[in-house]
Amino acid sequence: MEVDLIQNVQGVLKRTLDEVNRQIRKNRDAKEVLELDWSDKYEAYKIDVKAGGLNNQSTNIQFHPNSAKFEDNSSTPQTWAEFTHCNIYKAEQERMASINLRALVDNVLLETSQDLRCQYDRVNAAFHQRLEELNDAKAKLEYHLRRTLEQIADQEKNIAHLKQAIKDKEAPLKVVQTRLYERTYRPNVELTRDPAQFNLICEAGEIEESIALLQEKLREAQASLENLENTRMTLEKEIAIKVNSIFIDSEKCLKHRERYPTVIRLSGYQ
CA-based diameter of the chain, in Å? Predict the structure, then answer.
């Protein structure tokens, strides 16, 4: 939007500049005509003053037999007055055209400058709004990252507790399995299915089932930890992207826009 506006303003200013250059050429042509007419009249005035000052006692008088006539290219008082009036009228027309054009140029400069500054303000407002949105999104991501880090820490503790619980089950399982193994060496009829054997087998099953359940919970906890780590990396990347976007908008864009010219400068004044 701002680029389009600047290009449109450049087009308007170029067209206005072309009009100004054309008017300058017309003014120069009118000036040249007036200067030539003035020069001719001044020369004629000097000649008439000189001729009017002659008398019978003048030393620079002499015969000019062929001078008593009208020159073929001579003008009449009417054509002389019309010619002079025409030159003055045309020059006045160009002068008024210059005044009108100057007013138009001032108006174009003022309007285009104000349009540019208004667009500048709108763009800056959009930048600030976008920065607020980015900072808000960054704050939310950082909050989720803190929560995720807390969950990672809790899950790591949970995994450590599960591993310890599994390890704590290993000694009792070894004991009961060793007892069962030793009892397999009972001789002959002594190798009986007595209550102790049933209880040992039941105890071994319970411990193995408990260990299997703990191992399943451990796998779930490890999978959850992996997901949390992936979430952490995703959040950190998103935060880094937001930080970079904030830096670009605030430091690279808005800082440069601080040097945007004022309406007076845009109007052509220093």
Answer: 184
